[in-house]
Request: fold
Amino acid sequence: MSARSLSSLSSVTIIAFVLGTSVVALGAQPDQPTMGAVTVGKSAPAFSVVTLDGKEVSLSNYRGKALIVNFWATWCGACKLEMPWLAQLRDEYANRGFEVVSIVTDGASEEAVRRIADKYGVKYTVARCNHKTAQAYGGLPYLPESFYIGRDGKVILASADAGSKEEIEANIRRLLGLSPK
Reply:
């Protein structure tokens, strides 16, 4: 077999594997939406990450809180668009037991990450992603990705892309069991 034929066969095999895996993953629980490895209505994947200040934090630190776990990168325009909204909404709803954990996925310097966080008024936890956490949350093919986790530790909603401030607030209110505005 020629090198070109082997290359074409390899490409077809990879595509078939990916499609087959996707169908199995989606077909396994048709009544429960999934985003990567995360299934809405199921327990959020555990994670352990290190903050910019060197403190280890994990999902269990937020037990009993309504939480957004937000994955982002310093190069991501949509990520930076939603950061001031998340900061403002976190401040507004913190007294109701709401928190945000922001997990940066790229290898930007601590200085660059802090500069962005300061620019957008971020006062919530900012941590660095690690391979285990990225894989637990489906590999993070899109950014930003946000996972809305209820006080019981179950994923209420998963979203890719920034959306609007109004959508984020409506999702937070849903997470907290509050009526829409």
Q: What stands out?
A: Residues 1-31 form one domain. Confidence is low (pLDDT under 50) at residues 1-34.
